[in-house]
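Database export, one record per block. Field names are fixed; values are copied verbatim from the stored entry.
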Amino acid sequence: MSTPAKRIEELRDQLRDHNHRYYTLAQPTISDREYDALMAELEDLETAHPELRSPDSPTVRVGGEPLEGFVTVPHAVPMISLANSYNLDDVRAYDQRTRKRLADKDFHYVVEPKIDGVAVSLRYENGILVRALSRGDGRSGDDITANVRTIGSVPLRLQGKTPPEVLEVRGEVYMTREGFVKLNDSRQAAGLQVFANPRNAAAGSLKLLDSKVVATRPLDAVWYGVGELRGIAFDTHRQMLETLRTFGFRTPAKIWTCDNMDEVETALREIREGKDAYPFEMDGAVIKVDERDLYEELGSTAKSPRWAVAYKYEPEQVETLLKEITIQVGRTGVLTPVAELEPVLVSGSTVSRATLHNWDEMQRKDIRAGDTVVIEKAGEIIPAVVRVVLEKRPEGAKALPPPTKCPACDAPVSQRAGEVAWRCDNPACPAKSLSWLKHFVGRRAMDIDHIGEELIRALLKEQLISHPADLYTLHEKKAQLLDMERMAEKSVDNLLQAIENSKNADLWRIIHALGIPNVGERTAQTLEAHFASLQEIADTDEATLTAIEDIGPIVAKSILDFFALGENQFFIERLRAAGVNLERKGTPVSVEIETDLTGKTVVLTGSLSQMTRDEAKDLLRKLGAKVTGSVSSKTDLLIAGEDAGSKLEKAQKLGVEIWTESDLVNAIPKDAPPSIQSAVQSELGLG
């Protein structure tokens, strides 16, 4: 008679085999109903005999108790990311550098698809999965073991009888295209926010604290690399992939072995031509030296290995219908034509709108409502109309003439000398008010919590505000706020407290929040560095402004014109009367300590894991650095996060010093002021 322990082990072995056949080989041998019956029997037995539970049991796929938070764990071997190339000339240059470093040694390349997913590392000890980590900053990652265990194709125990002492496997977790569409459909039907693209959906799923929810997400993975190894070694990349397959891992379905660059280019072309056949989104290919014994000789840069390079394909272009052209009114009154598109998937996300910039641009491309247009994502981010498919233009399609009145308030519009933009001339335009209020309360302006676009619209509708200065009168209208829908006592108190807190914001924030044309966040901080108060800026002249680096005649004129208007002077007086800080606090640009970064020009690129990009900018400024948006010969330092792109490439070519996110954190002196230490603790989740 079979004991519970023996039957549990029999069921586990059967389910592991069926999982491998279903998820990895795509060759199931039993029906879903039969599989579910085996799983149910195992779950019942483990419930009845909790002492026999095991972390590698197939039942952990359904998820466990919610976590309180993620623990950060160092990688045994750093997870450095690959350098990117964007054209074949870059790939050929990489080949020349590699051959030069290897002298006359004989070697081969392997080429495989580049998956647009989330990098993950799995650690197996004596064949059992003990930990799964996210990439993090490359040196440490979040422990996401509970979530990764729910992914059906991930082996919880290695196949084979003699597993290595330690095997770390690296790869990419992704959400399948089909699963992504179904997930978004179900979320939309439930009234939930949809995900922008499969990569974001996968990343968001792995960050969930409840693994039971993760288990419902259509996640999968492909494994293509290794980290720490004990008791096992590989001569070539191909051998490593073959061995991983025997252990039960899903590896790239096909790799190309190449003797020379002609064969590499053929492989790159074939991968791109077949990209729609893959179940995952892909944005390029990876080229690796096959012979692993050459990796040490090739070495690595601070950021990337020299034995591999990623090749990013040109932006995907797709055709879709431009249904109509609407006009958007910005906070400064600029009218922007917007293409309302038949929704279409582009580079991994659904696009339904694209800016047409202005009427000159629209006329240059001859864009009309009803056209079939070609769109792409500029920089893989911003949807843009590339061109019109003229042969598909319907009869009677007419060009949209420049506006004669504002679509939001019917007020006259005008075009300033030297500008292509048309503007609404009505200072009380409701669309301008909405845009201006959104800008004023935003994270990079006054940073007022508990107030978003929906609440701003409601406040405008109730006529409780019409202008940013009105926010500081809301404490007098608490009774009316409480009468509004979904505004309970606590919500109102939180809102009013956040508005009160904003009165003590830095000077640069109020400069930026004012909405001065051509004055963005960086210019506002430059002005704070040169003027002690808002009044000093209002009283200055063009010569003083243009003498400041980075402020030219156009920006200077915008500043002078803004402060010359009586309505803006009244606005500032209202802010002053409400108690809003209009003076610089402490040293210019909030530089709080002299460090190695003081006076350096720094550029940020890629995704940061320990803090947001905005938090990193604030920290750099507190440490005395000047943060700019583009790499040039004047750049002193580039801080590169995950998936750094062309800025990293340019910085490497210019010989710019490159840091990781951890380098930035480590640059903070131990004797830094409390404001910096507390900010860093908050940003890193240590407070």
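Remark 1: The mean pLDDT is 84.
Remark 2: The domain at 84-312 is CATH 3.30.470.30 (D-amino Acid Aminotransferase; Chain A, domain 1).
End of record.
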